[in-house]
From TrEMBL:
Name the record gives this protein: Adenosylmethionine-8-amino-7-oxononanoate aminotransferase
Cellular component annotations (GO), alphabetically ordered: cytosol
InterPro entries: Aminotrans_3, PyrdxlP-dep_Trfase, PyrdxlP-dep_Trfase_major, PyrdxlP-dep_Trfase_small
GO function term, MF aspect, one: transaminase activity
């Protein structure tokens, strides 16, 4: 019997024993092609010797010091690297241990900024109905995944909401995508005005939506309008790039492609590539200056922040990405992946959409795409596809949309940045067989 508190009601999952490149091997000797890096984590593949050596060397040199007493060389170098990687002018990096911690940090940083500037009434963080920001209570309160929130509702603070930006489902017939983008963004302004701008601290959103909807890039112009609205009302813009940042969609920050500079951006998964737990809240000089001038500084902190071994691992991951030109491969490989998905699922009536940016791609399944009608949630189609994939030796990240009611099942793919065309073909072939199998298994109403 396993003494690990496994999540599900069922038995323990298979025991993984090793991983190399794109492949994970379990105790029984089965190999799994890792097409999602867990939840978009493993961005350079598994078992990279250059990262393993960096971890070993750092552990031997300096394992841990408390960040209240010391800074350390890998943390300094990693912060420099993060700021140099984006042309947007982000200047200060707060290093933590996970995506949820990064979001908690960002939300508190925004509040601290306003307090330090004498605007202590600003406390509301407006988020969107379509979002995932983490599982700690503060981050969960801001997230829009009802399934994840439901058991904890009485424990969470109310989060005001703006509309998601999801043209596939929300754009009206005849409406241009640009007009739709403005309509979606303007729901933020309406919410700010309803609450009273003087009480609003920040707007929090994923630049490209991951877990709750399946690789949804924003409509053109959406974030530019959001930026204008935030500026007009003195509200900070926090972009959650825990999943879509660190080259996942092609640029170091996905918001670079929107031409929008956030006040704070969160990173995690692709920062350490799974070699160590690490996250970051990265802010502009203007945000940081509020604390520098304040009397108390930023009242926050975690025991493992700026952990030397985690930072050394993340730095090595970023070195590998640079040395092997992996970031340059993301756009190209992402296009190949999307084309392969479109070709394979073009004749699958239930695949309503193939979408994404860079190497964050997804398919969405609907019972009747022409009416955008989803399968009965009780069928758990996404879960069934995930299970079928595992039987076919493929790891994907399945999910169910939860925007404004039921939206559809999706399968998210987030392979490593160095993926080849042959890998893409293998992934899509296995996924195709798994999807066919799962669809044959579920009753259709139409
Ligand atoms: N934000 C986003 C956008 C995420 O995708 C995730 C993780 N799926 C988180 C925050 C939370 O990160 P973690 O699980 O590392 O706490």
């Amino acid at each position: 019997m396993s003494h690990i508190f496994h999540r599900g009601g069922g038995g323990a999952p298979p025991l993984a024993v090793s991983a190399k490149g794109l492949w994970v091997v379990d105790e029984a000797g089965h190999s799994f092609l890792d097409a999602s890096g867990g939840a978009a984590v493993s961005c350079i593949g598994h078992g990279e010797p250059r990262v393993v050596e960096a971890i070993r060397a750092q552990a031997a040199r300096l394992d841990y010091v408390h960040s209240g007493a010391f800074t350390n060389a890998p943390a300094e170098a990693l912060a420099d690297r993060i700021c140099a990687a984006t042309p947007l002018g982000m200047e200060k990096v707060y290093l933590v241990g996970s995506g949820s911690e990064a979001v908690e940090t960002a939300v508190k940083m925004a509040r601290g900024y306003h307090v330090a500037r004498g605007e202590g009434d600003r406390h509301h963080v407006i988020a969107r109905r379509q979002s995932y920001h983490g599982n700690t209570l503060g981050a969960l309160a801001r997230g829009g995944s009802e399934a994840r929130r439901q058991p904890y509702l009485p424990m969470m603070t109310e989060t005001p909401r703006a509309a998601p930006c999801f043209a596939f489902h929300e754009k009206k017939t005849g409406e241009s995508e640009e007009d739709y983008a403005i309509r979606a963004a303007d729901t933020l302004e309406a919410e700010i005005l309803r609450l009273g701008a003087e009480t609003v601290s920040a707007f929090l959103a994923e630049t490209v939506v991951g877990a709750t909807a399946g690789a949804v890039p924003p409509s053109p112009g959406y974030f530019a309008r959001i930026r204008e609205i935030c500026d007009r009302h003195g509200v900070l813009l926090i972009l959650d790039e825990v999943m879509c940042g660190t080259w996942r969609t092609g640029s170091f920050l996905a918001c670079e492609d929107e031409g929008v500079r956030p006040d704070i951006v969160t990173l995690a998964k692709g920062l350490g590539g799974g070699y160590q737990p690490i996250g970051a809240a990265v802010c502009t000089r203007e945000v940081h200056e509020a604390f520098a001038d304040g009397r108390r500084g930023f009242v926050h902190g975690h025991t493992y922040m700026a952990h030397p071994i985690a930072c050394a691992a993340a730095l090595a991951v970023q070195d590998v990405i640079a040395a092997d030109g992996m970031a340059e491969n993301v756009g190209r490989a992402g296009e190949k992946l999307r084309q392969a998905l479109q070709a394979r699922f073009g004749n699958t009536a239930e695949v309503g959409d193939v979408r994404g940016r860079g190497l964050l791609q997804a398919i969405e399944l609907l019972e009747d795409p022409s009416r955008k009608a989803s399968f009965d949630p009780a069928l758990n189609l996404a879960g069934r596809i995930g299970d079928a994939c595992q039987r076919h030796g493929l790891l994907v990240y399945p999910g169910r949309g939860t925007v404004d009611g039921w939206r559809g099942d999706h399968v998210l793919l987030a392979p490593p940045y160095n993926i080849t065309e042959a890998d893409v073909a293998e992934i899509v072939d296995r996924l195709g067989r798994a999807v066919d199998e799962a669809l044959a298994d579920v009753p259709h109403r139409t």
